[in-house]
Amino acid sequence: MTIAQTRVPVRFDASMEPPMKDEVETAADLDATMEKIREKTFADNGHATRSSHAKAIGLFRGKLTVLDGLSAQLAQGIFTKPATFDVAMRLSTMPADILDDSVSTPRGLALKVLGGSGDRLPGSEAESTQDFVLVNNPAFFASSAKELLLNLKGLAATTDKIEGVKKAVSVINRGTEGLLEMFGMQSPMLQAMGGQAVTHPLGETYYSQAAILYGDYIAKVSVAPVSPVLVSLHKAKINLKDRPDGLRDEVRDAVIAHGGEWELRIQLCTNLDKMPIEDIAVVWSEEESPYIPVARIAVTPQDAWEPTSVRELDDGMSYSPWHGIAAHRPLGSVQRARKMAYEHGAQFRSTRNKCPVHS
Prior knowledge:
Helix content is about 30%, strand content about 20%. By secondary structure, the protein is an alpha+beta fold. Strand 6 and strand 7 form a beta hairpin. The N terminus is likely disordered.
């Protein structure tokens, strides 16, 4: 049974997305904080990396096929009609530091869909891609742009600090997170500080956390593994002892041997009170509105750490929810506040590494 047969999706109206007080100043401060992180890690490494999700643990190419027979509410934007697009995928870990994988933090999945027609978002007019930037938790660790800024300044102070301290914090936080999970709870902030369980990244489901415009409606996005091998990796433990790049090795081995298949799913907003746009620390209830498949992603067996792919998909690309069409515009103050930081981060890497960065 689809949402169309149960609850009616909310149609978007501009009044649902009011400007935040001091929004311009908050965005500028956020960008400046990210700039400090970028400069600090560049000084340490001699190579410009991202100010979050700096360490890639898997890079691969595939195909995204829009499903046939979608309801009118789901057939929106690039999913309006059946089609097949090339995609690039980047798996990563959250920190700005390139850390030993035993410092276990949230994982990210950036998906770049190559193609798709429609009016372009400001700043991406010259491109023809649609990006989705996802994390393996349905809720963000901050509820607003100002709270994000406050937390980010605290995280920035830990950039390039002694790695042994971070390992200790990671172990402590994983224990705390395990206690919370026993009671059916999770803490995005604890996970951000190193409380992520040491499990296989390919077994995870990834979420946009924040809402996007979905044609006439409002939605969140997830990408979930569906091929049997990937499904079997859900919560599969990994031994990272003396394996600083163990996550990358595990991802590489699995993709070389099996490739993978995922579903791209959409969760339509059906109740603004229970499914807010602005507070992205709120998990949208799947009982209120389930995630429904709109496309299938297929990756053939390939080397997920092949030098050409590393050069082209990691250093040579930027991934941002602001790369796309107007029908999938990011919604909410947090996403607006991060737009400048995404743009300046790509420019920083391009200039410092003397390597053009494409969106």
